[in-house]
Hints:
The protein is α/β, with parallel strands linked by helices. The protein has helices spanning 3-28, 39-44, 47-68, 79-108, 111-145, 160-170, 207-214, 231-237, 251-255, 279-299, 301-314, 362-370, 377-382, 396-405, 422-426, 433-448, 452-468; strands at residues 151-156, 178-185, 200-203, 218-221, 244-247, 270-272, 320-326, 332-338, 387-389, 418-420. The protein is 53% helix and 10% strand.
Amino acid sequence: MDHTRQRLKYLIPDLLSALFSWILFFLLYPExxxxxxxxxxxxxxxxNEFYRGLALTPVVWAGLYLFLGFYRDVFRRxxxxxxxxxxxxxxSGTVIIIAFLFGTGMAxxxxxxxxxxxxxxxGIHFAVSYIPRLAITSATTRAIRKGRLGFNTLIIxxxxxxxxxxxxxxxxxxxxxxxxxxxxxxxxxxxxxxxSYLPRLGSLDDIDRVIEEKGVEEVIIAIEPSENGKIERIxxxxxxxxxxxxxxxxxxxxxxxxxxxxxxxxxxxIQLSHxxxxxxQRNLKQVIDIILSVIALVALLPVSIAIALWxxxxxxxxxxxxxxxxxxNGKPFxxxxxxxxxxxxxxxxxxxxxxxxRRVTCPGRFLRKTRLDEIPNFFNVLKGEMSVVGPRPERxxxxxxxxxxAPHYKLLLxxxxxxxxxGQVRYGYAENVDQMIQRLKYDMIYLxxxxxxxxxxxxxxxxxxxxxxxxx
Length: 472
């Protein structure tokens, strides 16, 4: 489906609604003082405020909607949830716009008046913006239910469970838009029950090709209880950020409250999201990354100059060490660090450092204990290759060896690597692959509990590590 076109269907009315609601709001309160609000507001609002608002409001609203993730999953929007999202967005945008345009007057005037201003503008904007958004969402929902729109869906599984879930979804009272294009066989049998319903598109090893060639948008994992041991391997292969992944809930999932439904009519399935944080938190995390990186690079500039001189005087070689690491979605990038080892320390191949490593220089020992060697990592954050908090990036050489013993390591590649991590704080530097696997459990816990609040906790512990010189 054309996601860009659908996003424009929402974006253009949102921009027009922002302009119209501001014009309507202004016309309700003319300079003549005949408006509903009291004279202190009327005296403070003239044509300058009107034109500034005319230029500002579309930018603020579009930026806010983007920040909150309004334009991401544009075909699976719930009309009921849309009300809540619209109320939150309208309230947030109202505070930003009124505070920006009338901040001085609010500080000097009657606060009750300005709260009333906000309430009126909120009501106007919510009504004007929500009506077209509701109309677009309703039209999209009708198109999905009538079969004019749908999501190319792949079933992973080939036996009784797969047949049951296929039949149940196909016989729903209200279609959910699943257009089944085939199934993936994971048991290796030549003959499967699903052969009577859908074409076989290959095995698990073919899944990347199938998703790409068939334009798969949704995957349903429908495997037998005896095949549950394969679930980790399946999830490792479904590393596609925009793919919707659903699975059949077991009794344990129901008892622990993991089953969440969007409609009381649809077949109950667990949705397994690649997005481990809400959209607004992911965007907030990115903003915090940029702000902290700029502050750190500026504030630590004198320290960086001193470190550079120390490294240059102590030993031959470059001040900044750069080499390839693996980032989000397996994409390689070059990481920057202050050099802590002698030049050409890995002439015999990749090798992890140990506590008494003779390759580590005198400045290097201090920098490693205080983590100050990672100051140049902030440039990687500004380039969008890393985050301030996230699993430490590794080299492909070591990733291949970790995956041999712990295949679930690949799940960490779903997020940006970080300057500091839960594993780094709790475990420190690893000297071999086995220790890297032991540290992995902390990073996996972080992966399942990602939030801005957890990031701040890790940052606090990292700062304490720096001042206590407890880095390993």
